[in-house]
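Hey, can you fold this one?
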Amino acid sequence: MSTSDELTRIAQQALQAASTVAEPVERVAALAEARDRLDDAYNEALAEAVVSGYSFREVAQAARVAPNSVSPRLARSGLLASYASDEGRVAANDVTLAQRDLQQSAPDTQRLRFVPRKRSTRGRS
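Sure. Predicted structure:
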């Protein structure tokens, strides 16, 4: 189960809870909570999509949003937040770094390791 799946489940529970609230102002608060949980799931799903190889433009088209609105949402996702710039955006090269890092942390991936050169005695007296 992916992180966005879990966050989507949490958003569904929050929405279900909001549907049982009778008092209008309490329902507003409950719906705001559900919206926040859905926003978390949405951001995580966007991040999972770009990390799996979809371009920012493809993800934006699927979400029916402007391509430049994807980058700040990626910066708010759990998956890519650590790659965000100081301006709160994730660029394509940041996604490439994340993909590499995730690939290297996979248990079946063989990591490169440092092997020191052998010292040569040639040319020494």
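Residues 3-105 form one domain. Let me know if you want another pass with a different chain boundary.
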